[in-house]
Structures are given as structure tokens and as C-alpha cells.
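Schema walk-through. Below, the input block comes first and the output block second. Nothing else is stored per chain. Lengths vary across the set, and this one has 360 residues.
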Amino acid sequence: MTTPSASRRQFMSTAALGAAAILSAPAVATASRTNKETIIGEGEYQFRVNHAFAQLPDKYTWQTTHNVAVDKAGNLYVIHEGRRDQKDHPSIFVFDPTGKFIKAFGAQFQGGGHGIEVRDEGGTEYLYVAAYQQVKAFAKLTLNGDIVWFRKAPMESGLYSPGEDTSTEPTWTRNGFLPTNFAFLDDGGFLLVDGYGTFCIHRYDKDAKWISSFGGAGDGQGKFNTAHGLWVDNRPGREPSIVVTDRAHDTLQIFTMDGQYKETLTGFGLPANIDTWKNLMLVPELKSSVTLLNEKNEVVARLGRAVERLSEVENLRGKPDQWLDGQFVHPHDACFTPNGDIFVAEWVATGRVTKLERVS
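--- output ---
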């Protein structure tokens, strides 16, 4: 059994071992400088890089950036893990389409801020937030941060230890509740992945009532080692499916919409989450890459990848002065904008949110 903290330590110590295999993969996206701009990618998958898109006011600090989401107006929502001893500090920051800070809220998620998504429900947009560590809950909020509902562990599933529905202490076991990310269903319900707890996928109805679960800990083909992220793949020409990042196995697992295992995609470096846009699927990988796949699930680009630097520079995530333009350190989440630009949040304590702007 591998705890999340052990998994992260293992990642830092074994990144070099996987570097050769990952570097041999096709579709490497290179970086170039054009008129003092950094461009990464090749062919139709080229992006202009802005590593400093989101800037915080001095009164706030980044505290390990985790996830990003975009609303219809183009505003960017960024959630960070936060510190339990700073309960008055917000965990969610909002920026306008130019990167200007708008507002902050979500202090109740300090010490566990993780997943964030925007969902349109009948013309009104809401935030869905998953929090692990010392929060151990998930919630639905208005775009201004007002709580619509707040939920703890689904004890009716029979998967959790007594007290997990009230606990605020992280339980790094397979019967603890440490949720990480969401995916949305056409019937108004949603999926919640318990990425650091049971490794199960929970299905809820539109009223946030628990219905069922699938997955759990295991060696693949329907079982996981850190089921960290997920998404519903509705890309044109494909049968709708659920895609789950089996992070510690370096794979994506694909399921039918009722949770039956279909297939596994290999060749990733600690994949963390999923998003889709038109025919593309986006996979941020903690091993320094943002990967794009086409409608056939073929890799068409690996953006910002420099996995060899994870072994060359000890604790690269803690050395911002050694980060390079056009290269990522640890992409933890990424999302498309409506026009196909990409925002990337990296798992670094000083915070890093990059905008990748599509080059026409």
C-alpha cells in the first residue's frame, strides 16, 4: 500500500529512472524564441508561453498551486492547497482574461484545496471544489464563493472507517476520504474521485446524493494506484467514456459510462488530470509535460517537457531561479479555454500558473 506522501517522495527520487523512457517518446514539443517570445510546440500545436500570467496582490501568497478552471467570461479560477494555520487566507484566487486579479475566497479549504471545476447548470455557472488533507470534503459554490452545499465522506458507500464523515485529520489509508477531482454527467450528476483515499470513483446525482462507486486500489484494469484525476470524454466521433488518471502506474484507464473497464493508455509520466476541447485531450503530467492526444488517442504533442532536468537539478520545484521559459517542472492540472488556449497549474510551493496561447 502506497501513501500519497510516500508516492510523492518516490516520484522525486525516481524521476530520473523514468526519464530515458519518456524522452524516447514521439511528438516532442520544442521551445524557440521569436521576437522575444517563447513558442513551444510544432505544426498546428504551437503555443505562446506566459509563465507569469496570474499575479497576486502582495497581501496574498501562493501556497502550492494545484488546479485551474475557466468560466464563460474567460475568468481564471486557481486553487492552492493552503496552510491549515492560515485559516483566514483564501485558497481560491480569480483573475480576469488579462491576468489581472479580481477577487479571492475559499478560506474554508485552507489546508486541503485541490480540485476545482466550473459547471454551467441551466445558464448559471457554479464552482465545484474538492479538498483533501485537513479538509476532507467537497462542495458546490457560486462564482462569488458562496456555499450551495458542502459534503463529507459518503459513509453509505460502506468504504470508509468510522468518523471519516467528520474527521479533519488526513488518513493516508485505503479507507480514508481524500477527494481530488470531479467529472460531470449529462444527467446533472457528477463523478468524484477519491484520489488519495480509497482510489474509488463515486457517482452522485444532481442533488449531490451518493449513488454508487467503482474502482479501488489494485494493479490496473479497473483498479488504481492513486486515481488522481478524471474526465468524461465526449469528443466528436468517440463513444462517451470516463477517463481516469492512474497516476502512480503512469497510465490512463478508460471506462464505459457505467464504470466498466475498457482499456489502458500507457507512456505517461505521473498523469494528474484530464480535459478535452474539440478533438483534443489534454493530460498534465507531474514529470514536466503537458501532453495532447487526438481523437484516436494518439500523442500529437508533449509541451514544455524537460524531464531530464528533474534529475539534473535536485529539488527543482523549490528553485524558481532555475526554471526556464518554455519548460515545465511539475504540471498538476491544466484546462482549455473556449478558444483552445491552455492554462497550466504546477505543483510548486511558490505558485506557477502558465498561459499557453494558441499560435494561429
